[in-house]
Design brief:
The protein is mainly alpha-helical and 174 residues long. 66% of the residues lie in helices and 3% in strands. Helix 4 (67-77) runs antiparallel to helix 5 and helix 5 runs antiparallel to helix 6. The radius of gyration is 22 Å and the shape is elongated.
């Protein structure tokens, strides 16, 4: 009888050790959880899947594009600023940003990556001034969050820029 009790204790100890120490380490190798300032404010956590290639991580940020939703506001609520043309122009700015970051590569210099973000934000400033009211409060939040996701995918940290507000806040006028 004592052997059965000892064996049971050993099995339970092994299960506990395995579940507490070994399983979490495996998960940490596959997924890195990154909390950025804006995501924390909205109680969201951004997950950058480190098993994806640099290019695939950047391309995956397109799932955060708000432009289809914006255009839906045009058709459903008559919000004239969200025409297909304006939404396509905004989408093009981000497609170009992502393409430039991919071309530069994962090991590109930080200053070059940041310059691509500056160009994108400057183009958004111009688009906003030409399409009066395109970027209002909700859209600003959408764009800042999108830029933060792209920043993380480009292996940069949003908290390192504009006193923790992210790259967009260095140049945005909206």
């Amino acid at each position: 009888m004592p052997r059965a009790i000892i064996l049971t204790i050993v099995v339970f100890a092994a299960i506990i050790i395995f579940s507490v120490f070994i399983i979490p380490k495996k998960k940490k190798n596959n997924i890195a959880v990154v909390n950025d300032t804006k995501s924390l404010k909205s109680n969201k956590v951004s997950v950058a899947n480190k098993s994806l290639s640099y290019a695939d991580r950047l391309l995956a940020t397109k799932k955060y594009y708000p432009f289809t939703r914006w255009h839906t506001n045009f058709t459903e609520y008559g919000m004239e600023q969200y025409t297909e043309e304006n939404c396509s122009a905004a989408r093009h700015i981000f497609n170009t940003l992502i393409a430039n970051l991919i071309t530069l590569g994962e090991n590109g210099k930080e200053i070059e990556k940041v310059s691509f973000f500056e160009t994108a934000v400057t183009e958004l400033n111009n688009l906003n001034s030409n399409a009066d009211g395109l970027i209002e409060t909700g859209e600003r939040e959408d764009l800042c969050e999108l830029i933060d996701h792209i920043t993380l995918a480009a292996d940069l940290k949003p908290d390192d820029y504009a006193d923790g507000e992210g790259l967009a806040d260095l140049w945005r006028e909206w």
